[in-house]
Amino acid sequence: MWSFDVVANSVASGVLLGGMLALTALGLSISLGVMRLVNLAHGEFLVAGAYLAYYLLQVTGIDPILGLPLVGLALAALAWPLQQWLIAPLSNKGMEAPMMTMFGVSIILQNLYLLMFTADTRAIDTPYAARALHVGPVTVSAIYLIGFAISCVLLVSVHLLVSRTSFGRELRASSADPVAAAAMGVDVKRVHGLTFALGAACAAMGGVLMGTAFSFTPTTGATYLLISFAVVVLGGVGNIFGTLVAGISLGLLQSLAAMVLGDGYRDLVGLVIFLLALALRPQGIVAAKVR
Amino acid sequence: MSAIVSRAPVPAVPTASPSAQRLWPWATLPVLFIVLAASVPLLSDYGLEIAFRLLLLITLAEAWNLLAGYGGLVSLGTASFFGLGAYTLTKLLSDPSDSIILAMLAGGVVAALMALLVSRAVFRLRGLYFTVGTLALAEALRLFMVNYRGLGGASGLFLAVDPPAQREMVWLALGLLAFATLVVTLATATRFSILLRAVRDDEDAANQIGIRPFRIKLIAFLLASTLTGMAGALQALKVGTVEPYGTFGIQWTVAVLSVVIIGGQGLRLGPAVGAVFLVALSELLAEYPALQLALTGAILIGVIRLAPLGLVGLVQRLLARKKGGTR
């Protein structure tokens, strides 16, 4: 069987990785919660963040972690017009039209990456990516711990933004009842645009962390989209605390599965858990308790 | 949950009486298939290649149209059922004397069994969860095939027998399309289509009047999966090999849904028109596959926004306007 060290390492890296998964899922969760939009291009936004940080490091030498706000802002600035031009005009056409539009965006982006960056596997190369940290009997990669800390900070920031600011109030109002919110003077279109931009920024920053901890290709996005979706369903739509709990649970399960079955099964196990969750408990594992 | 676009019932053809409308496929389709069959011996090698791709794509699109156009169930899992059919045929055909037809049917059955297995997961929540659930299924199956050694792992399997000649492949594809057309015509020209559209337009209301939405959706899902699995089996027979990235790849899903959305969702002629459009596009840009896919994505976005009923819907609207119709 496995030694205590191996299990302890696996648990620790699973929990830390789970925190990062929560950040990647956050963007998907808020667009789904506020705009009822299934952003099928979410994975491509994530990969966009990874490429941006990769080239930022190559060209200007800016460290990807320090460049994180820059990447987030850049993606938010790109996502805003996308929402205004493509998604907003479809607001009265049900849920499928915007969803399939984002699927079209995802196909376009994936193939643009292929044309621009080739199909090569890349990883953002930093001195701390491979460094090992020893805490008692546990050894984890430094980037996991950094990624986990950054993810928690960002999750808490978004939570404060949604629960404590006037923008957050408008966002919650638009989510609960867009018509009533508009009648009370909320510019719902602007709120949706900002929400979408915020979601894209979260995805991109998650992508930077993932691209530093792991490798990525133009087509990596699909897997991240689905794993993010698994986290959203497990944690409950629009529930930030639930997202964190679900991310950590999924990261832990995936890490243990990779230990038992082999590393190739990591994502497969995530997807199977997702399908099981849909069949058995689609309302999420934490939603009922918190709300 | 509605289809991507209109909730309004769209007449299959602008004929006068409803009974004529219900009878027209039975009169025109056999004639059409006889004409198609008669033209197969005349085709050149290039013609056969294109004909096979068109027939396969229309078959897949018919199945997808039944689900999404008539049932409002937008699936991103085409590749899962396609791939299962392909692997089943490749595994079953081990001797030249084995029946190809039976192996294709087995491919369809395996695909349908998988649909049955996941139906609880994908139908539990409505609408968009079906879309994401089917996408997860396709990705999960691909990852499984990559990692599972028993079915060739990442390098896949080779067909043990020689594939039939190209002309024979076109006959098989034509036969499969005839079967798919029969199934979809039966499903859309009978009471079942009314039940299916009732569930699509308002699941709660349908439930209230005694329809069981789960059962209706499941039947449509099983029919579509069977047809998709058979089409996958046929493609595997043609190529002679299956491997996870090509067989379970998202490109099949993208191709099929683009064909239906560009052609016209929930319209009888949509799949055929969309398939001709997409095959023409892929021939034009054969040397730039990435560019072709990116362009397909852009066209998809444009069609959803500007012509929600696709090219067929656009033509119907123009014709109606020309006649001075009151629509």
Helix content of chain A: over 70%
Number of strands of chain B: 2
Q: Could you tell me the strand content of chain A as a percent range?
A: under 5%
Taking all Cα atoms into account, the compactness measure Rg of chain A is 19 Å
Mind telling me the C-alpha Rg of chain B? 19 Å
Unreliable runs of chain B: 1-16
Number of helices of chain B: 14
Can you characterise this structure?
The complex is a heterodimer of chains A (291) and B (327). Chain A has 291 residues and is mainly alpha-helical. Chain A has one domain. Chain A has twelve helices and two strands, in the order ααααββαααααααα. Chain A has helices at residues 4-35, 42-60, 68-87, 96-117, 142-164, 166-176, 178-183, 188-213, 221-235, 240-261, 266-280, 287-290; strands spanning 132-135, 138-141. Chain A has a two-stranded antiparallel sheet with strand order 1-2. In chain A, a hairpin with a 2-residue loop joins strand 1 and strand 2 (138-141). In chain A, helix 2 (42-60) crosses helix 8 (188-213) and helix 10 packs across helix 11 (266-280). Residues 287-291 of chain A have low confidence and may be disordered. Chain B is mainly alpha-helical and 327 residues long. Chain B has one domain. In chain B, 73% of the residues lie in helices and 1% in strands. Chain B is built from 14 helices and two strands. Chain B is globular. The two termini of chain B are 25 Å apart.
State the main characteristics.
heterodimer, A: 291 residues, mainly alpha, 12 helices, B: 327 residues, 73% helix, 1% strand
Q: Which helices and strands, and how do they pair?
A:
The complex is a heterodimer of chains A (291) and B (327).
Chain A: H1 4-35, H2 42-60, H3 68-87, H4 96-117, E1 132-135, E2 138-141, H5 142-164, H6 166-176, H7 178-183, H8 188-213, H9 221-235, H10 240-261, H11 266-280, H12 287-290
Antiparallel strand pairs in A: 1-2
Chain B: H1 18-39, H2 45-70, H3 78-92, H4 100-124, H5 128-147, E1 157-158, H6 166-189, H7 191-201, H8 203-208, H9 213-239, E2 241-242, H10 244-247, H11 250-263, H12 270-284, H13 289-306, H14 310-322
Antiparallel strand pairs in B: 1-2
